[in-house]
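Q: I have 79 residues here and want to know how they pack in 3D. Can you give me a structure?
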Amino acid sequence: MNAEHVMAALGEHLDASTYSGARVVVAIPDATRPLDLTATLGPTLTALSDAGAHVKVIVALGLHRPMTVSYTHLRAHET
């Protein structure tokens, strides 16, 4: 998925009138969960801002189940 795909999806499904003047919180995962923020966050924030939303971004710490030992071990060796 790239930014163009995200913008296309947002264009199809985001009704700008719903978000005009609305307060919107966008929760992004912490570093323990993979997400291409370049492809997803920028276009999402742009679409919401263009729609007139007041956006806050929070890092979603602790909103997922604990990692397994094998996943933790795998991530430790990626750097």
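Q: Anything worth noting?
A: The first helix runs from residue 3 to 13. The mean pLDDT is 80.
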